Amino acid sequence: MTADAPRAPVAEADVPWLSAEQQREWRALFGLLMDLPPALDAQLKRDAGLNTFEYQVLAALSEAPARTMVLSDLAALARGSLSRLSHAVTRLERAGWVERRSCTDRAGRHTEARLTDSGLARLEEVAPGHVRAVRRLVVDVLSAEQLTELAAAARAITAATRAEPLDECREDGGC
């Protein structure tokens, strides 16, 4: 089948419709997915001129040995594509917070990003406001048990989404 071929209609009986309770819970989760990221992003943009992805890049680099990571590893940790990461690193480089460099080691050639001293200082300046927002929007509105259950559910959903094949290429191999 090619990407342009029509798909066979799905029989109504083959659709695993959600129960009323499942639909209510799904809508609550969907609301969370739609409302929380923009709220966190707005705080970072207002207080720091960063978006959430850029903040995650800085935070990941701050925790890495020598504050340096290979870009492909950093992209995976920050939950973004290499292209998105490249654009973010370019913005962070212009601000003087990150340096990019080519390296060759046993694994071959790759590009690394390194958090600069001024990048670390900026992160340390921005982190308190971000942590307050995370607490206000998530941590402090949940009991410890709810937070643990939410994290377990998030890990299960993340594992399922990562197991799904990406729909970037056609079945005939063309992209």
Determine the CATH topology.
Arc Repressor Mutant, subunit A
As residue ranges, the low-confidence spans are: 168-175
Continuous helix count: 6
> Roughly what is the average pLDDT, rounded to an integer?
89
Q: Rg to the nearest angstrom? A: 20 Å
User: Under the CATH scheme, which class?
Assistant: Mainly Alpha
Give structural notes:
By secondary structure, this protein is mainly alpha-helical. The chain has a single domain, classed as Orthogonal Bundle (Arc Repressor Mutant, subunit A), CATH 1.10.10.10. The protein is 59% helix and 11% strand. It contains 6 helices and 3 strands. It has helices spanning 20-48, 52-63, 71-78, 82-94, 117-137, 144-163, and strands spanning 68-70, 98-105, 108-115. The protein has a 3-stranded antiparallel β-sheet. Helix 1 (20-48) runs antiparallel to helix 5 (117-137), helix 2 crosses helix 3 (71-78) and helix 3 crosses helix 4. Mean pLDDT is 89; it is low at 168-175.
